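Worked example 2:
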Amino acid sequence: QVHLVESGGGLVQAGGSLRLSCAASGRTTSSYAMGWFRQAPGKEREFVAAISWSGISTYYADSVKGRFTISRDNAKNTVYLQMNSLKPEDTAVYYCAVAKVVARSHRDYDYWGQGTQVTVSS
């Protein structure tokens, strides 16, 4: 069992920045890929970014490429999402998740956090 807790969400103006964190506990997670997803009201959960267990490989949705950066610190069992140049359309609940291999589909992720709200005002 892996327990994930996200933090760092909040209200920010368009153009601003936020840094999300996701702390993992339970089974050793350093060998797992980790990802960030988001879900806006009335919309399906969508892929945002993912990182391999080594941290060498990263993947992004086209909508966030160049603005968001995913990283991880395996010594702290924590994954981060640095979000810059935020737009109102980035408003959503952001979830981190763990998978055996890097993937873009939420169906490939085994454990999920409870989510953290990000609201970007125009």
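The mean pLDDT is 95. DSSP finds no helices and eleven strands in the chain.
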